[in-house]
Amino acid sequence: MTAKAGDVRGVVLRVLALTAALAAAAVAAAILFSTQRTALSLGAGAVIGALSFVALAASISCSAGSRRMGVRAALITGLCMLKLAAIGALLWWLVSRAVVDPLSFLMGFTAVVAALIIEGLRAAFANKGAGT
């Protein structure tokens, strides 16, 4: 079974919306019950996690979408890998300069993981209800 481009875009958008909702709830709770640094770390983790997810999704959909790896697909995949390297460098800078709290940052990053799990469960129950 192959996924259509619209299906992939819909999944990515749903995951990003769930990530934003989970991160907003976590940041609001941190503002109310913790420090500003914790809230900043949670938000930064969610944003970097979402950027990483989008870069990987774009790279995979581009390279898997064509049967033959053309120059354009290779270029887009290479650019996505450069984006991931830049995101990794930003992450290293944030943690090494103690801009963010590492544990809170990881908690924010897991908002993407939780959103992926929720979306997977939603899709599984939707397919089960459709009789597939």
Provide structural commentary.
- The chain is mostly helical and 132 residues long.
- The longest helix has 30 residues.
- The chain starts with a helix and ends with a helix.
- The mean pLDDT is 84.
- Classification by helices and strands: mainly alpha
Please count the helical segments: 4
> What's the helix-strand series?
HHHH
What Rg do the Cα atoms give? Answer: 17 Å
Q: Indicate the low-confidence ranges by residue numbers.
A: none
Q: What layout of secondary structure does this protein have?
A:
Blueprint: H1 5-33, H2 36-65, H3 71-96, H4 102-129
Précis, in short:
It is built from 4 helices and no strands.
Give structural attributes.
single chain, 132 residues, mainly alpha, 4 helices, flat
